[in-house]
């Protein structure tokens, strides 16, 4: 008797779960977890989304300001693979800004809540303890000032809603790190970046 009732309840629960799964599938709902943008571990392009990345300069003809990037194995986060090192110089008599850009391949980020990454400064070369970040969707530029960078790896988890000026997270085109002669607390130095993800 009890075995029959238990079997009936199990069948009923399984039926309810199956219906719920079917309804979720029909509705097209996808629950976001984590999307890797790049961990740099292969030491090469493109990123995990298939997008290019590189360094940029306000004025490439001005030798007093520049930014370069390199894959760094010795100081990689977690002691394995590579991290990305950004060597910047905005110590110029002219208005100066430069940085790092990464293509996001028109990613729909509306299912995600934060962009996360690990960051640290180079204790021997020096570094700014704050950097400007940008997210672009082709029509808008969202801006955020990240403070508190140290010479130890820290995970930054930034709510996407905190990027001022960004109203749509669909069709995202680019993630940008900016060094400039106003915001940067040290005008020359090196910053390391690793494990860039989007988190639900």
Provide an overview of this structure.
- The protein has one helix at residues 2-27; strands spanning 34-38, 53-57, 66-72, 83-89, 97-107, 114-121, 130-136, 141-147, 154-159, 172-180, 188-199.
- The protein is mainly beta and 200 residues long.
- It has 2 domains: 1-30; 31-199, Galactose-binding lectin (Jelly Rolls), CATH 2.60.120.
- The strands form 2 sheets. Strands 1, 3, 4, 6, 9 and 11 form a 6-stranded antiparallel β-sheet that branches. A 5-stranded antiparallel β-sheet has the order 2-5-10-7-8, with no helix packed on it.
- A hairpin with a 4-residue loop joins β7 and β8.
- The longest helix is centred in the N-terminal third of the chain and has 26 residues, at 2-27.
- The model is unreliable at 1-29 (pLDDT under 50).
Q: Distance N terminus to C terminus?
A: 46 Å
User: What gross morphology would you assign?
Assistant: globular
CATH superfamily of the largest domain: Galactose-binding lectin
Poorly predicted runs are: 1-29
Summing up helix and strand content along with how strands pair, one would put the structural category as mainly beta
Any descriptors?
200 residues, mainly beta, Jelly Rolls, 2 domains, six-stranded antiparallel sheet, five-stranded antiparallel sheet, 11 strands, globular, disordered N terminus
């Amino acid at each position: 008797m009890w075995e029959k009732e238990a079997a009936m309840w199990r069948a009923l629960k399984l039926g309810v779960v199956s219906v719920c799964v079917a309804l979720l599938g029909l509705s097209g709902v996808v629950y976001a977890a984590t999307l890797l943008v790049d961990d740099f571990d292969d030491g090469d392009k493109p990123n995990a989304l298939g997008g290019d990345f590189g360094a940029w300069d306000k004025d490439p003809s001005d030798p007093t300001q520049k930014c370069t990037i390199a894959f760094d194995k010795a100081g990689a986060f977690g002691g394995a693979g590579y991290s990305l090192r950004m060597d910047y110089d905005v110590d110029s008599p002219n208005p100066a800004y430069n940085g790092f850009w990464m293509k996001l391949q028109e990613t729909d980020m509306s299912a995600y809540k934060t962009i996360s990454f690990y960051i640290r400064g180079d204790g021997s070369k020096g570094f700014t303890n704050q950097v400007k970040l940008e997210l672009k969707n082709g029509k808008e530029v969202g801006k955020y000032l990240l403070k508190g960078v140290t010479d130890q790896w820290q995970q930054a988890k930034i709510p996407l809603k905190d990027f001022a000026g960004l109203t749509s997270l669909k069709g995202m085109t680019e993630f940008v790190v900016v060094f400039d002669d106003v915001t940067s607390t040290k005008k020359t130095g090196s910053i390391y970046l690793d494990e860039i993800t989007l988190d639900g």
